Amino acid sequence: MRVPVNGSTQTIEANDIAKSYGSVKAVDGVSLSVSEGEFFGILGPNGAGKTTTLEILEGLRQPDRGRATLFGLPVWPRNLKLLPRIGVQLQASAFFERLTAREQIRTFASLYGVKTAKADAMLETVGLADQADTRTERLSGGQTQRLSLACTLVHDPELVFLDEPTAALDPQARRNLWDLLRGINSSGRTVVLTTHYMDEAETLCDRVAIMDAGKILRVDAPAVLMRDLHRAVHVSVAHGTISLEAAAELPGAAQVSDDGVSLTISTTQPAVLLTELVQRQSLTDLQVKGPTLEDVFLELTGREYRA
Amino acid sequence: MSGFGTLAKVLALSFIRDKTAVFFTILFPLMFLVLFGVLFTDHGTSKAHVVQVGEVTVLDQLPQTAKTDLKGSLSVTKESGPLQPQLRKVRDGDYDAVVSEKDNQLAVYYSEADQVRSATVRGVLESVVQSANIAASGNVPRYGLNTHRVEDKSIQPIQYQTPGLLGWAISMSAVFGASLTLVEWRRRKVLRRLQLAPVSLAAVITARVGVSIAIALVQGVIFVGIALLPAFGLQLTGDWWLAIPLIICATLAFFAIGLLAGSFAKSAEGASGISNLIVLPMAFLSGAFFPLDSAPAWLRSLSEVFPLKHLVDSMRNVFVRSADLATILPDAALLLAFAAVAGAIAVKLFRWDDV
């Protein structure tokens, strides 16, 4: 856990929060802190307690125990002064019935006292200017998500919560949304995102909390999490570049396999191995694969990651 | 109050764009107005039909002026021959009564199937016999009788029907409007989204109340406007505008009922079901469609708990009896009290979310 810089107030501070539904412990003693400008991810499979954690941080639910603050202010009970400083995109897009995209965002803008022109500009930013007069019921999945994001950001919040923003999007729409999310963060806003996509957390987040069964297992930068695994790095070259026997005798090679397309050498000393391969000029179609967050999850929970 | 105007605009817009809601709010009640207009048109013209068998002196020797008077309430058909076949006609309902005379005694045979008509026949013939007795005694009648109707001569059934049907229409749209908005907004996570915006619960509720009152007043204007057409013949007299504050008070009460229904229901279907369960019995028991005068006393006392009963009664007082402000105040106060109590409970039960 990070220590607040110069003792300043953290943007988010949660201390041992817990919430049960009946006998199910949705959140079971979560503590975390997020500092200003950070892109923070909560990663875990469905039912890990990500959404409930987020809902407690947003002040939508009262935790059974523990306490959460945003900008040093308690989130519960509902605090009308705090709300304009945060933007929340809910898992299901919440729109008024029978309104067009433009009417939706203007409505949300007006609820926060933001000018109409700003709302129209935000629609432009998320690339929905052409769909402005379309009723939200008729927008595609990707367009709906972008409109939802635009409605979340229209009042310029300092802190943005996104609950699985790319769920149910096609790969192209996902990448477009990632670009938008990076843009939000680089403009200085703090972003908290839940996802069950490993690649999403890896690409976007400064720090990731790995969550399972209502508990946070570890929090760190994705690269640190993976480095600390001491897992083998997989180096592969085109089939025929080097023989299986020769590869097995290379310094640092732990395990060798050849599937007829490429030859893969597992190693815990990638630097030594790669130097050797360079000297032999056996680098055709070289690929190096480090461990992924999937591996981290496996290591932490002892079971395969299931999204 | 921030958010009130914005949310009211959204609600009004989504109501206007909901064709089903517009139909049930405006056109559906008008269909009933037309239907009731047709049903009750020839109610007043029906007379009692009497068969006279053989000679009946008191009827045959009636002076000409009395004969004309009699024609207003009785139509007399003369038959000769035996009595039995004519009695069968009364039993079959073709005629209301048979009258015959023997030795200066009038015999009237009637059926109890239509109690009002048979009573009319007996009353009229009794008075004919009494007049004839007085005339036979040679005395000048000492007392006379002149009857006067207390209502305006122009009073038509439409004066009663308009308050009833309009009240029912308003109760329906206010109850359904509140319950469906609450349930749909909760189901679509709109309430949750509003919970995250700097909008107070009061703003959310008053926006919906405001739109419901506006819809009720539009219903009133359209409904009364159509009823005023010569085809229906509604007359606005006296302090007819008192209907406006009454409608506003009643809408608040109906709205509170809708909020309660919406607090319990989980789905739009559930909300419609609960709303129907309240509105339909309330409409019948409040005398919105048919008068409750002949209903048992306990049912009439039960109907007092329904806000619609007080709206219909007080609007009828205004439209039929030209009531003034003081007369309708107790009903208005009752409506407001109902709204306050039911509304307070509904706010206590309010949830932003399902879980």
What is the CA-atom radius of gyration of chain A, in angstroms? Answer: 23 Å
- How is the biggest beta sheet of chain B arranged? 4 strands, mixed
Global geometry of chain A: globular
- What pattern of helices and strands is seen along the backbone of chain A? EEEHEEEHHHEHEHEEHEHEEHEH
Report on the structure:
The complex is a heterodimer of chains A (307) and B (355). Chain A is an alpha/beta fold. Chain A folds into two domains: 5-227, Rossmann fold; 233-290. Chain A is built from ten helices and 14 strands. In chain A, the strands form three sheets. In chain A, strands 6-7-8-3-9-10 form a six-stranded mixed beta sheet, with helices on both faces. Chain B contains 14 helices and four strands. In chain B, a hairpin with a 2-residue loop joins β3 (97-102) and β4. Chain B folds into two domains: 4-41 and 155-349, no CATH class; 46-137, D-Maltodextrin-Binding Protein, domain 2 (3-Layer(aba) Sandwich), CATH 3.40.190. Chain B is an alpha/beta fold. In chain B, 64% of the residues lie in helices and 7% in strands.
Task: Describe the secondary-structure layout.
The complex is a heterodimer of chains A (307) and B (355).
Chain A: E1 12-21, E2 24-34, E3 39-43, H1 50-58, E4 65-70, E5 73-74, E6 86-89, H2 101-111, H3 116-125, H4 141-153, E7 159-163, H5 171-186, E8 190-195, H6 198-204, E9 207-212, E10 215-220, H7 222-227, E11 233-238, H8 244-248, E12 253-258, E13 262-267, H9 270-279, E14 287-289, H10 293-301
Helix pairs in contact in A: 2-3, 2-4, 3-4
Chain B: H1 4-16, H2 19-39, E1 48-53, H3 57-60, H4 64-71, E2 74-79, H5 84-92, E3 97-102, E4 105-110, H6 115-137, H7 157-187, H8 190-195, H9 201-227, H10 243-264, H11 268-285, H12 297-302, H13 307-321, H14 325-349
Parallel strand pairs in B: 1-2, 1-3
Antiparallel strand pairs in B: 3-4
Helix pairs in contact in B: 1-9, 2-7, 2-9, 7-9, 7-10, 7-11, 7-13, 9-10, 10-11, 10-13, 10-14, 13-14
